[in-house]
Structures are given as C-alpha cells and as structure tokens.
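Job type: complex structure
Entries:
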Amino acid sequence: MDLIIQIFPYAIAYTIPLLIVALGGLFSERSGVVNIGLEGLMVVGGFASALSISKLQQSYPDASWVIWVGLLIAMLAGALFSLLHAFASINLNADQVISGIAINMIAGALTVFLARNITGSGNIRITGMSRGDVDFLGLNLSHIPLIGSLFFKNAYSTTWLVLIILVISIFVLYKTRFGLRLRACGEYPQAADAAGINVYRIRYIGVMISGAFSGLGGAIILVTYSGEFSGSVAGLGFLAIAALIFGQWKPLGILAASLFFGIATTITNVAQVVPSFAAIPQLVLKVFPYVVTLIALVIFSKSSQAPKSVGVPYEKGKR
Amino acid sequence: MKKGGIISLIAIFLGLIAGAILIMATGNDPVEGFTYLFQGGLKDSERIGNTLATATPLILTGLSVAFAFRTGLFNIGAAGQMLIGGFCALAIGLTVHLPTYLLLPLMVVVAMVAGAIWAFIPGLLKAKFNVHEVVSTIMMNWIAYWMVYYLVQNHFKGDTETESRMLADSATLKVPFLSDLFSGSFINLGIVIAIIMVIVISFIINRTVLGYELKAVGHNRSAAEYAGISVNRNVILSMMISGGLAGLAGVVQYAGNSSLIEIGVLPSEGFDGIAVALLGMNSPIGVFFSAIFFGLLSTGKGFMSAMTSIPPEISDVIIAIIIYFSATSLLIRKVINKLTRSRKYKKEILNSNVNVGEKVE
C-alpha cells in the first residue's frame, strides 16, 4: 500500500498529459478527421508555454499565475497551429495522414529553429509548478482517508484541471446538441449535411479542440515533470493515439487506457529503485502499451468503435 | 505524370519561399543563406560526395514508402524497419568474425530480412484483420525504438550513454576507393546499393507480373480481387518488400554513413522518406532525384549555419513545408487548372457526351 501511495502521484503525472491529448484526438476523430499531428501540436504547446512563461518569469519571478497564463497561451497556439491541418484536410481534401506528418515535422523543426534564434541552444528552461496538497474551500482534502493520500496529497493542480475538462467533454459529447452533431459528422457526414449541419464548420471545431488540448498537454509536461523545452515530447503524442484506439474512441475508455499506460511508464521509471519491480525487464514495460494496442486492434477488428467516416474527406455532392 | 512533376517543382519553390520568409523574419538575409546552403552541398567534390551519401538512406526509405504506396498502402513504419534492419546488421558486424567480402553481404542481407520481417507484421494484420497499416506501423516504430534502446544499452553500449560501440572500418560499407574519388567524403558503397535498388524496383513495378498485380491492388482492391489477384498475398508481399528496402536504409546509415547506432531517437530518414516519395510522385526515378535534393539541403545546412547566424533547422522546416504543400497539391492543381481552363473547357465540351454515360452508376 505504501508503495502504491508512493508511485501513484508519479503515475498520475504521466497519465494526465496523455489523457488530455488523447481526449483532443477524440474530438478530432469523432468529427471525422484523423489527426496524427498530435505529437507536433504538443511540441507547439510546449514551446509557446515555455517561451511565454520564461519571459513572464523574468518580470514576475514569484507569481504563480504566470504558469496558468502559459497554459492558456499553449492552448491558443495549439489551436492556431492545428488550423494548418484543418485547412489541408477539410478544405483541400488532402491525405490526412500526410498532412498530420507534415504538422509533426513542421512543429519539431520550426519550434527548435525559433528557440535557437531566441536562446542559442534551442532549449528553454522554466521554473515549473510545485506539487502540493489540494485545498478546497479551506479544507485540506489530503486528510480524507484512503483516497485523500492517493489523489489530493502531493498533486499538481493541472491534474484537476484536466479531470474537469474530461467531465465537461463527456457532457458535451453525449448530452449537448453540438456533441451529437460532432459525432454525426464522423459517422455519416452526408446525413449530417442533409439535416442542415455545416460539416466543414463542425470538423474545423473538432480539429481546433484537438489542437488546443494537445497544446495544453505539451504545456502540462513542461510545467510539471520536465521543466525544459527541447523540441520533442518523445513519442507521447503517438502514445496518446494508442490510448485513443485502445480506449475505443470513448472518453472513459481513454481515461482507463491512459491510466494504464501512465502506470506502465511509472513502473519502468521506478523499476531500478523499487526491488519488487526489478524482476520485470524494462523493455517489456516500455513496449507493453504498443503491443497491447496492436492486440486490441486485432481483437476489436470485427467490432471496432472507430467513427465510420474518420479519415474520409467530405465532399459536398459526392455520393 | 507531367503535371505531377510541375506540382513537385512548385511545392519545392513554395517551400523555399516559406523558408526565405522565415529567414527574413528572424533578421537574416535569405539570398545569402540559400547561397551558402547550396554551396555547402555542392562546393567541391567532398561536399558533393557527402550530399550523395546523405541522400543514400533517403533514396532507400523513399523507395520503401513509394513501393507500398503503389499497392495503396501507407508505410509510415519505415523509420522502425530501418532501425531494426540497421541494428541487426550492426549486431552481426560487432559479433561475427568473417572476412569483409563475406561479412558485408551477410550484413546487407540480414538488414533487408529484418526490415522485411518487421513490416510483415503490419502486412499480416492488414490482410487478415483489416487493421489499418498507419496505426500498426506507428506502434511497430515505437516497439522497434524501445527494443533497440535496451538491446544496445545492455549488449552493445559504447562510449556514451546514447551510442552503441563502433564498427571496425572493415565491417562497414566504407571503401577507400570511393572516399578518395570524392576527396575524403564519407560516401560509401551504400550509394551503389541504392542505385541498384532504384533499377530493380522500377523493373519490378513496370516490367513484371508481380508489379502489375501490386499496382492493380493499389488502384482498386475489389477489381483486383475480381480479376483473380490475391489481394491479401500482395498486401503482405508489398509490405515486406517495402520493409526490406527500409532495412537496407538501416545498414547503409548505421554501417556506412555512420559506424554506430544512436539510441533514443527514431531515424528521421524514415519520415523524410515519405516526403521523398511524395515529391518523387512514387516513381523510382523521381524518388532518386528528390532524395538527392533533400540530401543537398541536409548537407548544406551545416555550412550555412557556420557562415551565417541562421540555425540549421531551417532546412528541416523547408522539407516539412514542402511535404505540406505536396499533401495539399489540390490547391496547386486548382490554380494550374484555372490558368489552363480555357483550353481544357473546350476539351470538356468535346468529351461531354462520353461523360454523361459514365455518371450513371
């Protein structure tokens, strides 16, 4: 139990960025646009927040609102950058996979190019967020038995931000008019169009949400455990796609899948210091999420919950 | 095809323009920058040799992606196949003691087979379970990444944390004859392998039954099936040939251009191969020339950043923007069509009677 309490905060720290990025991917894919540019959009978010936070921290060294401004700017930057993908895949009927790859490449190269112009080395350091006990209306929630020490002790406040976004996303996707329209555009855009829905507009919104969430995910990595922008997020964007598929394009499925992957990552990282994990080869833990996703793809191949029209450009008047 | 070539040239042109704007925006002189960029890749015979050597793995990954494209498959796993192929060749080179004339062919064959096996899995999943090859090759990329990461760290660790041990020169594709010809460049036998593969692949695609079947599957799976072509067999075969080519890129990169494997990074050549294939319009010859163009940009960037204050990443930005414009070629196509509309319009009227019949489904 002590061990779980010890590693749980770390597992959460890895899960949260994965969760928010996969959730972004969900909005895009549910609207019918494949977005494998999530990785690049995370890099853009990381860059935008690193730049703005490092500049602001020079003027306001001790202010904690600086980090929240950085997160907001990361979301805006991600959403703006995702417009490139939206324009290519919605208006120009481009191959969405190729456009996504181009997004990844442009993001990686462009941000390092700009960072080098600014700092010389291409890396940007910031002072990140510190962990703390969560206060709610003056009550220290970490004193709640059992769950208090798991969820509220030593937690980042971004964790709660993301969980709130998750709840709102579930509500929006399944309980609002917009959510129904979004899902309709991913399943059968022709029918959606016939019902008077502007497919292009909905898809633009879907892609921009994925951009904003990915940007936020990249920024959360920066302000929580990395503390430095270096032009890469080491494949987390692709892992988020794996979580999206493994979660079968459903918000709660994605939550379970990202938690699963987050715990796997944490166990790999602590395996050297915790004797009970040392027996598992690290390689097994590292390839675990990808192998599991491949297996899931095979198992669900007959009953996949993937949106029917994902990846298919919508052309008005085409039957 | 002819229009495709024009579109590629326009995409390159737009990429260079975007690069120029970016250089200007960061307070540098684009004309000066591009002059040094191209000088850096072409100035003397050593630099030309380096350009060709840098282009070598790109030719092979480009061929790999293009070949799969012809069968309607999107192999974005070239990076992983290249890594696995290169790693297996390196492992052989470091552990097996054989005379060079036996060792090198063994390494090349092992790399090709390893790449083919790595691509066989997504091919099989596609054929048997209809798992989309884009997703499965992404997963295979990261499995390769971590496998090579730990295998190198545990068995072949070199001087630093992120590198493997170095191969002896006799276990690499480097030959004094080629280095001397290009006055000390790191060009090696890899370029010969690449040129042979360009010829072999264009022969397979254009002159064999296999190539015809593969293209038929790429154009229309159902029609191919109806004509008695085994779609599943061709899908798996196409992925394996594609993976084999990417594996060759691995041996050329890690036992030719370099003598060690770097861990903690997926080789960028794998993703650049997609750009190469797109720009080369999936034809082997087109791939060859577009790979050399990208090789030129990569080689020249070091010289440019040494002579100016422009960061070397500009060439990666230009390559990425070129891919984006190739992907959105519809826009360019529309503009071209608009410019040539009056001519085409007349043609359309002439053909309109034929078209009416086609619309009935």
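Summary: The longest helix of chain B spans residues 100-129. Chain B has one domain: 29-308.
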